[in-house]
Write a structure and sequence with these properties.
The complex is a heterodimer. By secondary structure, chain A is α/β, with parallel strands linked by helices. Chain A has 18 helices and eight strands. Chain A is globular, with a radius of gyration of 21 Å. Chain B has eight helices and ten strands. Chain B has two domains: 1-91 and 238-256, Nucleotidyltransferase, domain 5, CATH 3.30.420; 94-236, 2-Layer Sandwich (Nucleotidyltransferase, domain 5), CATH 3.30.420. The chains are: A alpha/beta, B alpha/beta.
Chain lengths: 422, 256
């Protein structure tokens, strides 16, 4: 079958699925995501362009330009969750990439070559948008892909905010938004529609507020939703923020969680202990970890990861020109600020959710997230006196996970918490 | 009340029986590949040795990596809580416990009331543990039991810099070929273990008195090297290797 014909078939199937979904009262995440990827894969048939973008990148302008944004990191999570990470990482290592490199990067680079993974590779990009607010690895990763696909790459450079968002940083980031518009106009061959962009920005903020409200329900006892559930529901706020249907999904989820709160239904039956999670999920072990903690009556009620997609709301002021808010919100995300501010965020979460212990995943892949964890641990122990647990693993590369070692650490950590609560 | 603790470690399985706060006896065997069998065997052998009836044991708690395979135990507890409980039974003043076992090393801090405050364990790498020493003993054609006394005769301990067991072994082989004395090499190995363990323990803050537990505590060379590195004396009990099992028996006596 020719590639063209395959795309036409995917396009028709996506259209049909969309129609069916329209009549469903509750729209399941899996179907929304499936249609999204099918539309990406058949974008050329629909005359649309595809942009690959980093998870913390400013996506709203892409949506305003009718470009389908695709997230290699979300794909990395899917690869990890479907336990396909090791084979792809090994493939990247065969290609010459170091085992010390981020496993999302390795899996994505290998996937682009073998078209493997759970969805047979990502839709081919027409352009790449790389924002370094999450890490420095993405720069090289996107350069590799720009060469491979021979497509233009836009780098959105967000200076690190050690203590503040300086005037210089403000001007510098804001000027890049104008460059970003020029890049998009050139790549799409048409003018940027600021009016449309403003609506999309509002929907994006609305979506982030709803997501925050969903996460906030976990402050109730018992928590109706756990961090492990949030890892799942997160996909839409990452991939589709700025789209209107995201609002429906999270409004529905919020209503369900509020209902659970009213009826006293917890994510972990018989919740006794409440924990906070730090860093990316260990995607191939989410269920195992969730069960291990639940066996001790412990619920991971919140995490620093899923809240990163609504953590910058405090910098958004809808009365300000939206590009100014956008520049600041994307620069001051959790991973682009100093350790003291990260520790403050963690402590705020400990207080807000009434947490008994802090679980940190020291993620071999994610250096910016894992660097400073020992300092944050010390600050948390000093300020709140709750026990902290460090689990060494990796988000996608299972070769960095040792079950019996992790199990012993969790059990011992829970023994300390139980003893403290007596 | 009489209670028992079973500790299934990566190299050895240990059992201890206690009665009203007194240790009646303990036993150590190799774990082998069948942890379930090792648990039953070490327990039965100890019962026989003590000349008591199985039925006279009120409660049994298991610990160690193979803790869940001990089906006849009433409950399981981790090595962390057990080593702390065992150490405190033998010396109630202890504030820090450093345990060096077959495949892991850990540092545990306890508060004045006997509660575990915090712990830290080695991760991803077995250098600086009992298995590391076994590999080195094999490379040196020496017996692990004479490692301690040999190292005390060293005049200039070698420098073993690699953190990886396999690479450290190659370093040892290269030192042998250079004609370095066995005593100096062994002392160097002990110093590398001491450096690794003390750096790990520093993360939770070392507070005196410190007790050293686990099989490696039997090695006087490691004890001396670690004391030198930490700059404080270590308490080493004759029961160091069975501390986990003793602690499990202590926890069994508290269990409802």
């Amino acid at each position: 079958m020719t590639e063209k014909l395959k795309q036409i078939l995917i396009f028709i199937a996506a259209g049909f699925k969309k129609l069916v979904l329209r009549f469903k009262k509750r729209k399941p995440m899996k179907e929304i995501m499936m249609i999204y990827y099918m539309e990406g894969k058949s974008a050329r048939v629909a005359g649309k362009k595809v942009a690959w973008i980093t998870s913390g990148g400013p996506v709203e302008p892409l949506i305003a330009m009718d470009v389908i944004p695709i997230y290699p990191e979300n794909h990395g999570a899917m690869i990890g969750a479907s336990k396909m990470g090791v084979a792809l990482c090994e493939k990247a290592e065969e290609m010459g990439y170091s085992r010390d490199l981020c496993s999302y990067a390795r899996a994505d680079i290998a996937c682009a070559v073998v078209n493997g993974g759970p969805i047979g590779g990502l839709p081919r990009p027409d352009m790449l948008v790389c924002c370094n607010n999450i890490c420095g690895t993405v720069l090289k990763w996107y350069e590799v892909q720009a060469r491979r696909f021979n497509v233009p790459l836009f780098i959105f450079d967000t200076p690190f905010c050690h203590t503040e968002y300086s005037e210089e940083a403000k001007k510098y980031v804001r000027s890049q938004i104008d460059e970003y518009m020029v890049f998009l106009e050139k790549a799409c061959g048409r003018k940027f529609d600021s009016g449309r962009m403003e609506n999309i920005w509002r929907w994006s903020i609305e979506g982030q507020k709803l997501w925050q409200a969903v996460l906030d329900t976990a402050a109730s006892r018992p928590a109706p939703i756990s961090a492990f559930d949030a890892f799942y529901h997160l996909a839409l706020i990452v991939s589709l923020r700025g789209r209107r249907d995201v609002l429906d999904y999270y409004s529905d989820l919020l209503a369900r969680m509020k209902d659970r709160v009213t009826r006293g239904i917890g994510a972990v039956p018989g919740e006794k202990y409440r924990l906070l999670w730090d860093n990316l999920p260990i995607w191939y072990r989410v269920r195992w970890l969730s069960q291990r903690f639940a066996s001790h009556g412990a619920c991971l009620v919140a995490d620093t990861y899923t809240s990163a997609w609504c953590g910058s709301l405090k910098y958004v002021d809808l009365s300000r020109p939206f590009f100014d808010s956008m520049a600041e919100a994307y620069t001051r995300i959790y991973l682009n600020v100093g350790i003291d501010e990260m520790a403050r965020t963690v402590i705020e979460m400990i207080d807000k959710y009434g947490v008994d212990g802090f679980v940190m995943h020291s993620n071999r892949s994610c250096k910016p997230y894992s660097l400073g964890q020992y300092d944050i641990q010390r600050i948390v122990e000093r300020e709140r006196g709750i026990p902290c647990l460090m689990l060494e693993a990796d988000m996608v590369d299972e070769r960095n996970f040792s079950e019996s070692q992790v199990a012993t650490r969790i059990d011992a950590f829970m023994e300390i918490i139980k003893q403290n609560k007596k | 009340m009489r209670t028992a603790g079973i500790d299934i470690g990566s190299i050895t399985a240990k059992a201890a029986v206690m009665e009203d706060g007194m240790i009646l006896g303990s036993r150590i065997i190799f774990t082998g590949y069948n942890t379930d069998l090792a648990g039953r065997k070490v327990f039965e052998e100890l019962i026989k040795e003590l000349g008591i009836e199985t039925a006279s044991i009120g409660k049994i708690v298991s610990t160690g990596y193979g803790r869940s395979s001990v089906k006849f135990a009433r409950k399981t507890a981790t090595e962390i809580i057990c080593h702390a409980a065992g150490a405190l039974l033998l010396d109630s003043r202890v504030k820090t416990v450093i345990d060096i076992g077959g495949q892991d090393s850990k540092a545990i801090s306890v508060d004045g009331t006997g509660k575990v405050k915090n712990f830290v364990m080695n991760d991803k790498c077995a250098a600086g543990t009992g298995r590391f020493l076994e590999v080195m003993a094999r490379a040196l054609g020496s017996d692990l039991d004479e490692f301690g006394s040999l190292s005390l005769k060293a005049d200039r301990p070698s420098r073993i810099s690699s953190l990886c067991t396999v690479f450290a072994e190659s370093e040892v082989i290269s030192l042998i070929s250079k004609g370095e004395t066995r005593e100096n090499i062994i002392a160097g190995i002990h110093e590398s273990i001491a450096a690794r363990v003390s750096a790990m323990a520093a993360r939770i803050g070392i507070v005196s008195p410190v007790m050293l537990t686990g099989g490696v505590a039997r090695n006087i060379g490691v004890v001396k090297a670690l004391e030198a590195k930490l700059g404080i004396p270590l308490i080493v009990s004759q029961y160091a290797q069975v501390m986990g099992a003793i602690g499990a028996a202590v926890i069994a006596s508290r269990a409802v």
